[in-house]
Amino acid sequence: MSSPPDAREARVIPVLLLADHGLVKTTRFRRPVYVGDPINTVRILNEKEVDEIVLLDVAATPARRGPDLARVREIAGECFMPLAYGGGVRTLGDVADLIACGVEKVAVNSRAREDAGFLREAARRFGSSTLIASIDVGTRLWGRRTVRSHGGRRDTGRDPVEVAREAEDAGAGEILLTSVDRDGTGRGYDTDLVRSVADAVSVPVVACGGAGSLADLHAAFAAHASAAAAGSLFVFQGPHRAVLISYPTRDELAAAWPRGPA
Fold first, then answer.
1. Which of 57, 160, 170, 182 is 20 to 30 Å apart from 112, CA to CA?
2. What is the mean pLDDT of residues 2-10?
């Protein structure tokens, strides 16, 4: 992508974190704060005509369980928009079950770190357009970025660009790239990370982690992301972080987009 898209064409995606049947918001993948019921939240986002939603069950992998299919089916049944799901996906059967529940895209994270061949087989069986490679990235001392797994708890020591290229080669149709250090902070995306990965692969890269303003969304696109995803930006309002589900109109996005060259 040579320049950011027009605000009316930009893919802006709410990310909802599911844990123990409710929605939470984390900071740096820790300290989850309850923010509401997923069904009510999806209904609000329906009214706001959101293009798509990413739902991540952040409790599944730490609890060593698979997706809560009954809950996913219930949430998908309320969605008027495409739904992507991630969390606890470990088998090809999980992918098939999620698709049967109404999920359009399945995000794979920890399982792919353990077995690179899993992405390849999933892409072969279900198609690249169904498969998202979810890549979480943290920063070590001296600023070296490495891929983490299992809810950010395990440092794989691997370079995110290398992992992203492998995911693309395996057949992933999209990459969800999340900065662990920026998650929930409102400090803006790690645009250097986003640019390095987006420039290394040809599949769409969805930037996630750190959005605190609509201007931050534009910065993600300026760093060559194909889409900008956010959580806190759409669930908290004001300095006291009151819970209020929101989503910008295209006019509001346009007002936040800088004029002239990026």
1. 182
2. 83
Residue 136 annotated in active site: yes
- Do the Cβ atoms of 197 and 168 come closer than 8 Å? no
Q: What residues contact residue 235 under an 8 Å CB cut-off, 6+ apart?
A: 23, 25, 35, 36, 243, 244, 245, 246
Rounding to the nearest 10 degrees, give the CA dihedral for residues 173, 9, 39, 70: -20
Residue in 136, 181, 183, 216 annotated catalytic: 136
**Tens digit of each residue's pLDDT (9 = 90 or more) over 183-239:** 999 999 999 999 999 999 999 999 999 999 999 999 999 999 999 999 999 999 888
Cα separation of 53 and 26, whole Å?
17
Q: Give dist(CA 59, CA 57) in Å, integer.
A: 6
* Domains of the chain listed by start with CATH number: 11-253 (3.20.20.70)
pTM above 0.85, yes or no: yes
